[in-house]
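Student: I would love a firmer grasp of how sequence relates to backbone shape in proteins. Thank you; the sequence and its tokens follow:
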Amino acid sequence: MKIITTIIALLMAVANIQAQGTMKENVDFNVWPKGELNTAYAKYFIGNSYLAPLGGENGLVNVTFEPRCRNNWHIHHKSVQVLVCVAGHGWYVEQGKAPVAMHPGTVIAIPAEAKHWHGAAKDSWFQHLTYMTKVEEGASNEWLEPVADAEYDKLPASSALLSHTDAEYMQRFDDFAFGEVVQQVKNRLDDRTRYICYLATLLGCQGIDTYRELLPEALDKGVTPVEVKEIVYQATAYLGMGRVRPFLTATNQVLTARGIALPLASQQTTTAQTRREAGTEAQVACFGDSMHQFWQSGPEDSRHINRWLAANCFGDYYTRTGLDLKMRELITFCFLAAQGGCEPQLKGHIAGNLHVGNDKDMLIAVISANLPFIGYPRTLNALSCIRSVEAGK
């Protein structure tokens, strides 16, 4: 009875935290202790887990999983394990049964002799309490094979669980984003181009969860692994490594799960000695002959930035193979429109898009396709910039 009383109290705490709106997908370790790195059982886990013993005769423990962490398949012989999710989102998978999504308040009683595993969702930390009950003489744990990435990655990210928790809302969103909007733009954007623009836009607006969900679809629509990597690499020049790195990590996880060997073949065409000159030529191709001397223009105290634009932004990225200049200008348009606050640069790249052959109707189709992911204000701002460039302002 003592352990049951404790669990009831803990569940009430979970409910109170949720009611206060402070339960986040990323775990608050001030509420549920993270504990120490689980070194004793590390060989039975993929990724890092942490243990925080909470006391009690049944061995009540709070277990923390980092995103993607899960334990191996295993069996509890002659005992029942109870799991109580207290923070984040995770999965319980029992052989022969449908996976069970775990969120705060979910309780799982794992039957003795059931082969199973549990762990975090791809995009969320996860904490569950665990204790053993109905323990018979001779009880033991049998650790089995790891859960392969290909098997694990079939499970949706925690954000995809919205289709269960918010079915009505997600149905309306999907009908709009992938129905009505696609019908509007399909004559100007093929599926592959549309998904390239989605990926670039999600980088721009920092939509990492949706990026993880759409990347496999993009690959299925014909976007190549090289093209995906080039989108992420080029985003560094417009978003910075601080915002790009999580997307690079997510990309590597998805590609690896699909059995794609990394690193991919190099797409680099320049050296440290040739990058500036090659970058200038790329600028000229995008914006015209006035760019020949741009790299050495401007006030002396900031001239180095214009040199870096030529050598780094264009020389290091635009000169790579994998995407042509038309597509590179198009994804830059997506980066800038999605992040907002950089309308002068957006106008410059609208002009660049027009110069390389991405016409006004194409750009309007792109921002229309991307509207569900960035909202109306940034879409209308981008449209205003297109109109302004069209008017020569």
Observations:
- The first strand starts at residue 36 and ends at 37.
- The mean pLDDT is 90.
- The domain at 2-157 is CATH 2.60.120.10 (Jelly Rolls).
- Residues 72 and 146 are 4 Å apart (CA to CA).
